[in-house]
Write a structure and sequence with these properties.
This protein is mostly helical. It is built from five helices and no strands. Bound molecules: fe (ii) ion (2 copies). One fe (ii) ion binds next to helix 2 and helix 5.
Length: about 140
């Protein structure tokens, strides 16, 4: 399950697409670590990914929500709820979890990233992108 960007992931909004590509890039780094499975200590590398993921996510979600607010998108609340769900997921990956079982932590990260792509980007984000296009806003 590597994270390869495909045209079908594109929402046709360049700033958003490049932010989503960043998520794929972080996902790929997590994937590379997961398939190593070499029994070595990768605690520091995993924590770098987790920290970066949280930073990126907070930035991206704020950016999207500001755009939705600006253009009066009616499903902003729904987006906000889904965004909080992913932020909580990342925050739940604690240093203790990673320390206790690195392989499980990295597989959990991969699992929720693929869920994010398939159910949030491809469905919820696409809806606001269609709305913006329909209204001729972007
Ligand atoms: Fe998004
Ligand atoms: Fe979103």
């Amino acid at each position: 399950m590597s994270f390869k960007w495909k045209d079908r992931y594109s929402l046709g909004i360049p700033t958003i697409d490049s932010q989503h590509k960043k998520l794929f890039e972080i996902g790929n780094r997590a994937y590379e670590l997961a398939i190593l499975n070499d029994g070595h200590d990768h605690y520091d590398e995993i924590m770098v990914i987790v920290d970066e993921l949280l930073d990126y996510t907070e930035y991206h979600f704020e950016y999207e929500e500001a755009l939705m607010k600006k253009y009066g998108y009616e499903h902003l609340i729904h987006q906000h709820k889904e965004h909080n769900f992913y932020i909580d997921k990342i925050k739940n990956i604690s240093e203790e979890n990673v320390d206790a079982d690195q392989q499980k932590a990295i597989l959990d990260i991969l699992d929720f990233l693929s869920q994010w792509i398939s159910s949030h980007i491809l469905i919820s984000d696409r809806k606001y992108a269609d709305y913006f296009k329909e209204k001729g806003l972007l």
